[in-house]
Amino acid sequence: MSIEENIETIVATxxxxxxxxxxxxxxxxxxxxxxxxxxxxxxxxxxxASMGVALTSNFETWKAYAKASEKHATQVxxxxxxxxxxxxxxxxxxxxxxxxxxQVKVLDGFGYWNGLFQxxxxxxxxxxxxxxxxxxxxxxxxxxxxxIWYITKGEVDKVLNIINHFAEERRANLWKGIGVALxxxxxxxxxxxxxxxxxxxxxxxxxxxxxxxxxxxMRKAGL
Length: 223
Prior knowledge:
The chain is an all-alpha fold and 223 residues long. It has helices spanning 3-21, 27-34, 42-56, 59-68, 73-87, 91-95, 103-117, 119-124, 137-152, 156-163, 168-185, 190-200, 204-220. Helix 3 runs parallel beside helix 5 (73-87) and helix 5 (73-87) packs across helix 7.
């Protein structure tokens, strides 16, 4: 499938996962249902469900869900970031309840949500939310980079046009997010990858780090 078709499938799968979590079934039943999704998109379903659990339950319930979904830990914590943004929870205090190594994933989800749903502020005028302190910036920008890939549907000229409007010090993490997103979405030809590596210029290593990070979490999830 093409990048655009894969994005449509991912969006639909995320929503189905969220709806399952919000339907009131138990954690065990939820995990059973999520494991029925096509393996290619299963982690996306777990991510959507993570958002749903976080929106409708307390943090202890979300923690129980996260423990039961350990194979999909990256996506589960990204889903928590979506929920923090959607519900306008206190970012700093919620992050303090999450393992240190997973906080960047939560921030990624928070940044991604802002890139999609606060597009004017986050993408068009490159604003940084007040609750994004300097140590949160890298994870937030990685999520914004992922949002850019989804918004542009992989069109390199559009990606470059958007990223080049950001301050130079933010571009490394934006390109890392592009690498993560293109790997999860799929549908990229070898020629497109080469074009992206050329376009990323001095940030080529960051793009590659994003690809490697996504490959690692995908392997852990059995993809």
